[in-house]
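pasting for ref
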Amino acid sequence: MTTYRRIGLAASLLLLALETTACAYLSTPFNAQTLLKSADVVCQGRVMSVEPHHIEPDASFQPPLNTKGQAARVRILNVIKGSVGESVTVVYRLSAPFVDYTELTQGQECILFLHSQGTIYRFVDDHNGTLKIPSHQPLHYQSKTPEGRMIEELIFGTAKDTRSIRLFCAEQLAAFPSEVAVGRLQELALEDDMAVQGVAYAGLIVMDHPPRAEALSEFFARTEDTKSLARFRTTAYGNCQLKARVLGELESRFNIIARDYDNAPFAAWRRAARAAGEKWKDFNLIGFLKSSSWQNRDLSCGTDNGVIAKIVAEQIDENGVPSLHSRAYRKGSKAIVSRLLGSDNPHARFAAALAIDKMINEPHKFPFPGWQAANGIGHSDRLDAYVEACRKWIASYNDWTDDTE
Protein backbone atom coordinates (compact mmCIF):
# COMPACT_ATOMS: atom_id res chain seq x y z
CA MET A 1 0.00 0.00 0.00
CA THR A 2 1.44 3.39 -0.91
CA THR A 3 2.02 6.13 1.62
CA TYR A 4 -0.76 8.14 -0.03
CA ARG A 5 -3.29 5.34 0.35
CA ARG A 6 -2.23 4.65 3.96
CA ILE A 7 -2.73 8.29 4.90
CA GLY A 8 -6.05 8.27 3.07
CA LEU A 9 -7.25 5.24 5.00
CA ALA A 10 -6.06 6.68 8.30
CA ALA A 11 -7.78 9.97 7.58
CA SER A 12 -11.03 8.22 6.68
CA LEU A 13 -11.01 6.25 9.92
CA LEU A 14 -10.21 9.41 11.86
CA LEU A 15 -13.17 11.24 10.37
CA LEU A 16 -15.48 8.37 11.15
CA ALA A 17 -14.24 8.16 14.71
CA LEU A 18 -14.35 11.86 15.51
CA GLU A 19 -17.39 12.86 13.44
CA THR A 20 -15.84 16.24 12.74
CA THR A 21 -12.67 17.61 11.20
CA ALA A 22 -12.42 20.23 13.95
CA CYS A 23 -10.50 17.83 16.18
CA ALA A 24 -7.89 16.84 13.61
CA TYR A 25 -5.19 17.97 16.03
CA LEU A 26 -5.64 14.63 17.82
CA SER A 27 -3.83 12.85 15.01
CA THR A 28 -1.48 15.71 14.16
CA PRO A 29 1.91 15.77 15.88
CA PHE A 30 1.86 19.53 16.43
CA ASN A 31 4.55 20.61 18.85
CA ALA A 32 5.13 24.34 19.24
CA GLN A 33 8.56 23.84 20.78
CA THR A 34 9.82 21.63 17.93
CA LEU A 35 8.46 24.02 15.30
CA LEU A 36 9.96 27.00 17.12
CA LYS A 37 13.42 25.42 17.10
CA SER A 38 13.21 24.44 13.42
CA ALA A 39 11.93 27.74 12.03
CA ASP A 40 13.96 30.65 10.70
CA VAL A 41 11.09 33.02 11.47
CA VAL A 42 8.17 32.69 13.88
CA CYS A 43 5.75 35.59 13.84
CA GLN A 44 2.24 36.79 14.48
CA GLY A 45 0.75 37.79 11.16
CA ARG A 46 -2.46 38.79 9.38
CA VAL A 47 -3.20 37.49 5.88
CA MET A 48 -3.82 40.42 3.55
CA SER A 49 -4.36 38.60 0.24
CA VAL A 50 -4.25 35.13 -1.32
CA GLU A 51 -3.72 34.14 -4.95
CA PRO A 52 -2.83 30.99 -6.97
CA HIS A 53 0.84 30.08 -7.18
CA HIS A 54 2.80 27.25 -8.77
CA ILE A 55 4.21 24.69 -6.38
CA GLU A 56 6.32 21.55 -6.91
CA PRO A 57 4.96 18.04 -6.24
CA ASP A 58 5.20 16.82 -2.66
CA ALA A 59 8.19 14.46 -2.73
CA SER A 60 7.36 13.04 0.70
CA PHE A 61 4.92 10.75 -1.15
CA GLN A 62 5.88 8.01 -3.57
CA PRO A 63 5.10 8.73 -6.30
CA PRO A 64 5.27 12.49 -5.59
CA LEU A 65 1.85 13.99 -4.98
CA ASN A 66 0.80 16.79 -7.33
CA THR A 67 -1.05 19.56 -5.51
CA LYS A 68 -2.19 23.06 -6.27
CA GLY A 69 -0.45 25.95 -4.59
CA GLN A 70 -1.21 29.43 -3.31
CA ALA A 71 0.75 32.47 -2.21
CA ALA A 72 -0.40 34.61 0.70
CA ARG A 73 0.75 38.13 1.44
CA VAL A 74 1.12 38.30 5.23
CA ARG A 75 1.51 41.49 7.25
CA ILE A 76 3.86 40.99 10.21
CA LEU A 77 2.33 42.10 13.51
CA ASN A 78 4.90 40.74 15.94
CA VAL A 79 8.12 38.72 15.77
CA ILE A 80 8.76 35.83 18.15
CA LYS A 81 11.93 34.55 16.47
CA GLY A 82 14.18 35.73 13.65
CA SER A 83 14.31 38.91 11.60
CA VAL A 84 11.75 39.84 8.96
CA GLY A 85 10.32 42.90 7.18
CA GLU A 86 6.87 44.43 7.40
CA SER A 87 5.36 41.70 5.21
CA VAL A 88 6.25 38.35 3.65
CA THR A 89 4.99 36.10 0.88
CA VAL A 90 4.16 32.59 2.09
CA VAL A 91 3.79 29.84 -0.52
CA TYR A 92 1.92 26.71 0.56
CA ARG A 93 0.03 23.69 -0.74
CA LEU A 94 -3.72 23.24 -1.01
CA SER A 95 -5.15 20.14 0.62
CA ALA A 96 -5.72 17.08 -1.53
CA PRO A 97 -8.24 14.26 -0.93
CA PHE A 98 -7.36 12.65 2.43
CA VAL A 99 -4.23 14.80 2.80
CA ASP A 100 -4.49 17.99 4.84
CA TYR A 101 -2.02 20.84 4.39
CA THR A 102 -1.89 24.10 6.31
CA GLU A 103 -3.79 26.74 4.33
CA LEU A 104 -4.27 30.47 4.82
CA THR A 105 -7.34 32.61 4.21
CA GLN A 106 -7.68 36.34 3.75
CA GLY A 107 -8.15 38.13 7.06
CA GLN A 108 -6.81 35.22 9.09
CA GLU A 109 -4.60 36.04 12.06
CA CYS A 110 -2.26 33.40 13.47
CA ILE A 111 1.29 32.52 14.45
CA LEU A 112 3.33 31.23 11.50
CA PHE A 113 6.36 28.92 11.62
CA LEU A 114 8.43 29.67 8.51
CA HIS A 115 11.75 29.05 6.82
CA SER A 116 13.12 31.34 4.15
CA GLN A 117 13.43 30.18 0.55
CA GLY A 118 14.90 33.02 -1.44
CA THR A 119 12.33 35.78 -1.80
CA ILE A 120 9.49 33.66 -0.41
CA TYR A 121 8.77 31.78 2.78
CA ARG A 122 7.50 28.25 3.27
CA PHE A 123 6.04 26.50 6.31
CA VAL A 124 8.54 24.50 8.35
CA ASP A 125 5.95 21.71 8.32
CA ASP A 126 3.46 21.64 5.45
CA HIS A 127 0.89 20.01 7.73
CA ASN A 128 1.55 22.11 10.85
CA GLY A 129 2.47 25.58 9.70
CA THR A 130 0.39 27.79 11.96
CA LEU A 131 -0.87 28.10 15.51
CA LYS A 132 -4.37 29.50 15.87
CA ILE A 133 -4.65 32.31 18.39
CA PRO A 134 -7.36 34.77 19.37
CA SER A 135 -7.12 38.01 17.38
CA HIS A 136 -5.29 40.60 19.46
CA GLN A 137 -3.07 43.62 19.36
CA PRO A 138 0.66 42.76 19.36
CA LEU A 139 1.87 41.85 22.82
CA HIS A 140 4.68 43.80 24.44
CA TYR A 141 6.93 40.81 25.11
CA GLN A 142 8.64 40.72 28.48
CA SER A 143 11.01 37.96 27.39
CA LYS A 144 13.99 38.37 25.08
CA THR A 145 14.07 34.69 24.08
CA PRO A 146 11.90 32.97 21.45
CA GLU A 147 10.82 30.35 24.00
CA GLY A 148 9.76 33.00 26.50
CA ARG A 149 7.81 34.92 23.85
CA MET A 150 6.06 31.79 22.69
CA ILE A 151 5.06 31.05 26.28
CA GLU A 152 3.61 34.58 26.53
CA GLU A 153 1.51 34.00 23.40
CA LEU A 154 0.28 30.63 24.67
CA ILE A 155 -0.63 32.05 28.06
CA PHE A 156 -2.55 34.84 26.33
CA GLY A 157 -4.42 32.20 24.34
CA THR A 158 -5.40 30.36 27.53
CA ALA A 159 -6.72 33.58 29.07
CA LYS A 160 -8.51 35.28 26.19
CA ASP A 161 -10.27 32.48 24.35
CA THR A 162 -13.21 30.28 25.27
CA ARG A 163 -13.04 27.93 22.30
CA SER A 164 -10.86 24.89 21.68
CA ILE A 165 -7.99 27.30 20.97
CA ARG A 166 -7.76 27.87 24.70
CA LEU A 167 -7.41 24.16 25.40
CA PHE A 168 -4.90 23.70 22.59
CA CYS A 169 -2.73 26.55 23.90
CA ALA A 170 -2.84 24.99 27.36
CA GLU A 171 -1.69 21.66 25.92
CA GLN A 172 1.20 23.32 24.11
CA LEU A 173 2.42 24.98 27.32
CA ALA A 174 3.47 21.52 28.52
CA ALA A 175 6.19 21.52 25.83
CA PHE A 176 7.92 24.50 27.49
CA PRO A 177 9.23 23.48 30.93
CA SER A 178 9.49 26.71 32.90
CA GLU A 179 8.19 28.15 36.14
CA VAL A 180 5.93 30.51 34.22
CA ALA A 181 4.31 27.71 32.19
CA VAL A 182 3.91 25.49 35.25
CA GLY A 183 2.37 28.37 37.19
CA ARG A 184 -0.17 29.06 34.45
CA LEU A 185 -1.20 25.40 34.24
CA GLN A 186 -1.59 25.29 38.01
CA GLU A 187 -3.94 28.27 37.75
CA LEU A 188 -5.96 26.57 35.02
CA ALA A 189 -6.20 23.41 37.13
CA LEU A 190 -8.20 25.41 39.69
CA GLU A 191 -10.91 26.39 37.19
CA ASP A 192 -14.39 24.88 37.28
CA ASP A 193 -14.42 23.97 33.59
CA MET A 194 -13.75 20.23 33.50
CA ALA A 195 -12.09 20.34 30.07
CA VAL A 196 -9.70 23.11 31.12
CA GLN A 197 -8.92 21.32 34.38
CA GLY A 198 -8.27 17.98 32.68
CA VAL A 199 -5.93 19.45 30.09
CA ALA A 200 -4.07 21.35 32.81
CA TYR A 201 -3.63 18.21 34.93
CA ALA A 202 -2.28 16.24 31.96
CA GLY A 203 0.17 19.06 31.18
CA LEU A 204 1.41 19.27 34.75
CA ILE A 205 2.05 15.53 34.79
CA VAL A 206 4.04 15.82 31.54
CA MET A 207 6.13 18.58 33.16
CA ASP A 208 6.83 16.41 36.25
CA HIS A 209 4.74 18.63 38.52
CA PRO A 210 2.04 16.14 39.47
CA PRO A 211 -1.12 17.41 41.15
CA ARG A 212 -1.99 15.95 44.52
CA ALA A 213 -3.54 12.50 44.31
CA GLU A 214 -6.52 13.87 46.23
CA ALA A 215 -7.06 16.56 43.61
CA LEU A 216 -6.95 13.99 40.81
CA SER A 217 -9.39 11.79 42.71
CA GLU A 218 -11.81 14.71 42.87
CA PHE A 219 -11.36 15.23 39.14
CA PHE A 220 -12.09 11.58 38.39
CA ALA A 221 -15.22 11.81 40.55
CA ARG A 222 -16.67 14.50 38.28
CA THR A 223 -19.41 13.22 36.03
CA GLU A 224 -20.87 16.34 34.42
CA ASP A 225 -20.95 16.33 30.64
CA THR A 226 -18.41 18.75 29.18
CA LYS A 227 -20.62 19.02 26.06
CA SER A 228 -17.37 19.34 24.16
CA LEU A 229 -18.93 18.75 20.75
CA ALA A 230 -21.35 21.63 21.21
CA ARG A 231 -18.85 23.95 22.89
CA PHE A 232 -15.65 23.21 21.01
CA ARG A 233 -16.86 21.45 17.82
CA THR A 234 -14.73 18.49 18.78
CA THR A 235 -15.27 15.23 20.65
CA ALA A 236 -11.76 15.35 22.10
CA TYR A 237 -12.70 16.77 25.49
CA GLY A 238 -15.46 14.52 26.77
CA ASN A 239 -15.30 13.11 30.29
CA CYS A 240 -13.83 9.76 29.26
CA GLN A 241 -11.29 11.27 26.87
CA LEU A 242 -10.05 13.69 29.52
CA LYS A 243 -9.69 10.98 32.15
CA ALA A 244 -7.98 8.61 29.71
CA ARG A 245 -5.50 11.36 28.84
CA VAL A 246 -4.62 11.95 32.48
CA LEU A 247 -4.33 8.21 33.18
CA GLY A 248 -2.13 7.76 30.12
CA GLU A 249 0.30 10.44 31.30
CA LEU A 250 0.37 8.91 34.78
CA GLU A 251 1.13 5.49 33.31
CA SER A 252 4.04 6.84 31.28
CA ARG A 253 5.58 8.43 34.39
CA PHE A 254 5.30 5.23 36.43
CA ASN A 255 6.34 2.93 33.61
CA ILE A 256 8.98 1.09 35.61
CA ILE A 257 9.02 -2.28 33.85
CA ALA A 258 9.97 -2.41 30.18
CA ARG A 259 7.61 -4.24 27.86
CA ASP A 260 10.24 -5.31 25.35
CA TYR A 261 12.99 -7.40 26.93
CA ASP A 262 14.92 -7.60 23.67
CA ASN A 263 15.47 -3.87 23.71
CA ALA A 264 19.23 -3.25 23.83
CA PRO A 265 19.21 -0.14 26.08
CA PHE A 266 16.87 -1.88 28.53
CA ALA A 267 19.12 -1.46 31.58
CA ALA A 268 19.70 2.25 31.05
CA TRP A 269 16.02 2.79 30.27
CA ARG A 270 14.97 1.03 33.44
CA ARG A 271 17.40 3.01 35.58
CA ALA A 272 15.99 6.22 34.15
CA ALA A 273 12.44 5.04 34.78
CA ARG A 274 13.25 4.14 38.36
CA ALA A 275 14.83 7.57 38.84
CA ALA A 276 11.62 9.14 37.59
CA GLY A 277 9.65 6.96 39.98
CA GLU A 278 11.85 8.14 42.84
CA LYS A 279 11.19 11.75 41.85
CA TRP A 280 7.48 11.03 42.10
CA LYS A 281 7.73 9.06 45.35
CA ASP A 282 5.47 11.51 47.18
CA PHE A 283 2.68 10.88 44.71
CA ASN A 284 0.62 7.96 46.02
CA LEU A 285 -0.40 6.40 42.71
CA ILE A 286 -1.93 3.29 44.20
CA GLY A 287 -3.72 5.41 46.77
CA PHE A 288 -5.15 7.39 43.88
CA LEU A 289 -6.33 4.26 42.08
CA LYS A 290 -7.81 2.94 45.33
CA SER A 291 -9.78 6.13 45.90
CA SER A 292 -13.52 5.85 46.04
CA SER A 293 -13.85 7.98 42.92
CA TRP A 294 -11.95 5.37 40.89
CA GLN A 295 -13.48 2.37 42.62
CA ASN A 296 -17.00 3.61 41.93
CA ARG A 297 -16.58 4.86 38.40
CA ASP A 298 -18.18 3.14 35.45
CA LEU A 299 -15.72 0.63 34.00
CA SER A 300 -17.64 0.71 30.73
CA CYS A 301 -16.51 4.31 30.28
CA GLY A 302 -14.15 4.95 27.39
CA THR A 303 -11.32 5.48 29.87
CA ASP A 304 -8.74 2.86 29.03
CA ASN A 305 -8.90 0.13 31.66
CA GLY A 306 -5.81 -1.32 30.03
CA VAL A 307 -3.86 1.70 31.30
CA ILE A 308 -4.90 0.92 34.86
CA ALA A 309 -3.95 -2.71 34.37
CA LYS A 310 -0.53 -1.69 33.04
CA ILE A 311 0.11 0.56 36.03
CA VAL A 312 -0.37 -2.22 38.53
CA ALA A 313 1.14 -4.93 36.32
CA GLU A 314 4.37 -2.95 36.04
CA GLN A 315 5.00 -3.77 39.67
CA ILE A 316 5.79 -7.34 38.62
CA ASP A 317 9.45 -7.55 37.76
CA GLU A 318 11.05 -9.56 34.98
CA ASN A 319 11.44 -12.62 37.21
CA GLY A 320 7.71 -12.97 37.66
CA VAL A 321 7.55 -11.79 41.27
CA PRO A 322 6.33 -8.51 42.73
CA SER A 323 8.78 -5.72 42.06
CA LEU A 324 10.56 -4.18 45.03
CA HIS A 325 9.11 -0.69 44.91
CA SER A 326 8.21 1.33 47.97
CA ARG A 327 5.35 0.04 50.06
CA ALA A 328 3.31 3.17 49.33
CA TYR A 329 3.62 2.53 45.60
CA ARG A 330 2.73 -1.16 45.77
CA LYS A 331 0.12 -0.98 48.51
CA GLY A 332 -3.32 -2.02 47.37
CA SER A 333 -2.26 -3.05 43.91
CA LYS A 334 -3.24 -6.65 44.46
CA ALA A 335 -6.77 -5.60 45.32
CA ILE A 336 -6.99 -3.37 42.26
CA VAL A 337 -5.79 -6.08 39.89
CA SER A 338 -8.20 -8.55 41.46
CA ARG A 339 -11.04 -6.09 40.96
CA LEU A 340 -10.18 -5.65 37.29
CA LEU A 341 -9.95 -9.42 36.84
CA GLY A 342 -13.37 -9.75 38.46
CA SER A 343 -15.01 -6.90 36.57
CA ASP A 344 -18.32 -7.38 34.79
CA ASN A 345 -16.69 -5.70 31.82
CA PRO A 346 -14.97 -8.40 29.67
CA HIS A 347 -12.68 -5.78 28.11
CA ALA A 348 -11.43 -4.75 31.55
CA ARG A 349 -10.85 -8.40 32.54
CA PHE A 350 -8.92 -9.19 29.40
CA ALA A 351 -6.87 -5.95 29.54
CA ALA A 352 -5.81 -6.76 33.09
CA ALA A 353 -4.90 -10.37 32.30
CA LEU A 354 -3.02 -9.44 29.14
CA ALA A 355 -1.02 -6.71 30.88
CA ILE A 356 -0.05 -9.05 33.70
CA ASP A 357 0.86 -11.84 31.31
CA LYS A 358 3.17 -9.58 29.33
CA MET A 359 5.04 -8.59 32.48
CA ILE A 360 5.78 -12.17 33.55
CA ASN A 361 9.00 -13.72 32.34
CA GLU A 362 8.74 -17.11 34.00
CA PRO A 363 7.40 -20.41 32.59
CA HIS A 364 3.65 -20.63 33.09
CA LYS A 365 0.68 -22.35 31.51
CA PHE A 366 -1.61 -19.43 30.83
CA PRO A 367 -4.12 -20.53 28.16
CA PHE A 368 -3.66 -17.54 25.89
CA PRO A 369 -6.91 -16.94 23.93
CA GLY A 370 -5.51 -18.40 20.72
CA TRP A 371 -3.99 -21.48 22.38
CA GLN A 372 -7.03 -23.76 22.28
CA ALA A 373 -8.58 -22.54 19.05
CA ALA A 374 -7.89 -25.83 17.31
CA ASN A 375 -9.91 -27.69 19.95
CA GLY A 376 -13.07 -25.82 19.05
CA ILE A 377 -13.40 -24.04 22.40
CA GLY A 378 -15.39 -20.84 22.09
CA HIS A 379 -13.66 -17.46 22.21
CA SER A 380 -15.55 -16.42 25.35
CA ASP A 381 -14.59 -19.62 27.15
CA ARG A 382 -10.94 -19.17 26.18
CA LEU A 383 -10.94 -15.63 27.55
CA ASP A 384 -12.51 -16.77 30.81
CA ALA A 385 -9.92 -19.55 31.21
CA TYR A 386 -7.12 -17.08 30.52
CA VAL A 387 -8.41 -14.58 33.06
CA GLU A 388 -8.92 -17.31 35.67
CA ALA A 389 -5.31 -18.49 35.22
CA CYS A 390 -4.06 -14.94 35.78
CA ARG A 391 -6.30 -14.61 38.83
CA LYS A 392 -4.84 -17.79 40.36
CA TRP A 393 -1.30 -16.61 39.63
CA ILE A 394 -1.97 -13.33 41.44
CA ALA A 395 -3.40 -15.18 44.44
CA SER A 396 -0.33 -17.42 44.68
CA TYR A 397 2.03 -14.55 45.58
CA ASN A 398 1.37 -13.76 49.20
CA ASP A 399 4.38 -11.44 49.40
CA TRP A 400 2.74 -9.03 46.96
CA THR A 401 1.45 -6.41 49.40
CA ASP A 402 -2.30 -6.73 49.60
CA ASP A 403 -5.00 -4.31 50.66
CA THR A 404 -4.36 -4.61 54.40
CA GLU A 405 -2.21 -2.41 56.56
